[in-house]
Amino acid sequence: MAWLRARPRLALLLLAALLIALPFLVGAGLGRSWVRVLDFVLIYALLAIGLNIVVGYAGLLDLGYIAFYALGAYLYAWLASPHFGLHLPFWAVLPLGAALAGLFGVLLGAPTLRLRGDYLAIVTLGFGEIIRIFMNNLNAPFNLTNGPQGMNLIDPVSVGGLAFEGQRQFLGLTVTGLHLYYYLFLAFTLLAIGVAMRLQDSRIGRAWAALREDEVAAAAMGINTRNVKLLAFAMGAMFGGLAGGLFAAFQGFISPESFNLWESILVLCMIVLGGMGNIPGVILGAVLLTVIPEALRYLGDLQRATLGHVAVDPSDLRMLLFGLSLVAMMLWRPAGLWPSRQRKREFASEDEHADLYDARA
Amino acid sequence: MPTSTMPAPECLLSVEGVCKRFGGLAALEDVTLSVNEGEIFGLIGPNGAGKTTLFNCMTGLYSVTSGAVRLAGEAVQNRKPHEVVKRGFARTFQNIRLFANMTALENVMVGRHVRSHATVIGAILRCRRTREEETAIRARAHELMEYVGLGHKVRALAGHLAYGEQRRLEIARALATNPKLLALDEPVAGMNPAERQQMADLFRRLREDGRTLLLIEHDVKLVMGLCDRVAVLDYGRKIAEGAPAEVRKDPAVIAAYLGGAT
Ligand SMILES: Nc1ncnc2c1ncn2[C@@H]1O[C@H](COP(=O)(O)OP(=O)(O)OP(=O)(O)O)[C@@H](O)[C@H]1O
Ligand SMILES: [Mg+2]
Question: Any residues with CB less than 8 A from the CB of A282 and at least 6 apart, and which?
């Protein structure tokens, strides 16, 4: 690895090649269903990057984040499905979804400006549930969301007449809609990474960090804490809305079920597990928490093959392992698997790492 | 350094009849004082006299119950803290409030927030103006770290600095906002005599460089040697104001300090 580190350009090239070949490698090695998992990894990565702005950068604990995902998804369904007979192109709908989610981010942020920590968590949790319940019940008197049945036949993304569905041959490879979505999601994820990293390393990112550290001192140092908070909520929500729109197009079907509290918690866990505030860590969290549950499904087959029947339901096992791994992490890696240098310092005891900080300019 | 050598001192900060109540407790009662441009103004008084409360009322952390605070003629009471900072009034805290998990340099860079302009779009696109501004912020932060004598600690974590260094860092951070008036709440508390002397030198240097200082301090000797004028608070009331030598002889002041002890 050391020789790669010395050649950052080559490393980047290899990474790019890997990312481009990945769906085909995965498809050939593990089967088509895993390409689908790969697509979900990217959607969750997008969500986690967005939530990380709110929770990781600005330190505002948001348990209702999935509501923005829902808003983006529903807006997509409204504007690109037979439900209202509208079929706008994805490049028009996605920004609208992000904007709508951003607006709701501000609407959620404004009344909660004075809340911190636990109180904020409770209010945002309620907000997430309210949106879901609205989606569940807005089928009468006017059918807006089609209630619990959800909305289907949502238009797939289509670029220049190329719809992201079915399959076609290209250079001897079978390219399916799943592959095309992979590249689309990858593009958005890379964009989100760029945006998040640049924001973090800017005047605004520093203001968020100051807010997270000490709100009173931040205000006394000239930071307009209200604006900075609302900005964090709005930016995070926009990523959520974008991911929601992509999700709706990808699935072709959405229902309130997809946007329950568990999803919010899952995304939060990705951040906490991976390493709050650190983009690579957050992405690692998204990868692990999407891939591992899928992999655990095989335990069912394994039990059937060895024991002849399913002794432990894999989905129960999933929850168990999930809980155990979170507890283990809190004990041994409280800052996450791949924390930012800053988080690591926060959790490290002073004397243990004293030599690290005495660094000279 | 008597102020009489300067041409008619201009009033930079005036506190006019400020009252602050917490429920039944009157923490400040009809406090009036004025700080002239270019001086070091000392605010002294026994524990619980209301010094910190007055700071909080002036810098927007507390609303005042009544009265006015004017900075260069403009009313700033009951404004948001960041608006007060923007008008050129920065402060430090009695119980140090640094951004402990950010580096020393980043702390100071945060102070530049109010004097910089990059927007979200600018930050995302990282256009030339944003990059230049960022470079300027960093350069200014380095400069200020040197100024307060922490040039070698820029990369250290603020929370891991020694106590005295944290006090200096808080001053650098406040200076980064380009204040005309800098209010320091017990900046030498807990320091040894040598450190106090260094801090006093820093304060003089700040005055020479054209800043006005408002200083809460318990160390009477330091205040007397350093300040151009002082005011004394006791139980939320101002009991004296004037040149240090006069205030020191004021019977009310002597009573307040000795009375508190008996
Ligand atoms: N937020 C608050 N709520 C209620 N009472 C307060 C509050 N802040 C200050 N007080 C009270 O106001 C009075 C003045 O306190 P203040 O901290 O201003 O004193 P001080 O002069 O700074 O004292 P010290 O020298 O100990 O720092 C005290 O009786 C204190 O208990
Ligand atoms: Mg005090």
Answer: A45, A48, A49, A52, A56, A270, A271, A274, A275, A276
Torsion angle in degrees (nearest 10) through CA of B191, B193, B196, B200: 170
- Is residue B200 within 8 A of residue B226, CB to CB? The reply is yes
Alpha helices in chain B (DSSP H): 51-58, 81-86, 104-111, 120-125, 128-147, 163-175, 193-208, 220-226, 244-249, 251-261
Domain boundaries, given as residue ranges, for chain A = 1-30, 33-270
Ordered domains of chain B (ranges, CATH): 7-88+181-262 (3.40.50.300), 98-178 (no CATH)
Q: What is the pLDDT of residues B25-83, one digit of tens each?
A: 999 999 999 999 999 999 999 999 999 999 999 999 999 999 999 999 999 999 999 99
Q: Is A354 on the interface with B (CB under 8 A)?
A: yes
Tokens representing residue A26 in the block = 């995965």
Ligand 2 is a single-atom ion; what residues have CB below 5 A from it?
A: B 52, 94
- Chain A from 172 to 211: CB within 8 A of any B CB: 194-195, 198-199, 202-207, 209-210
**B157 and chain A in contact, CB less than 8 A:** yes
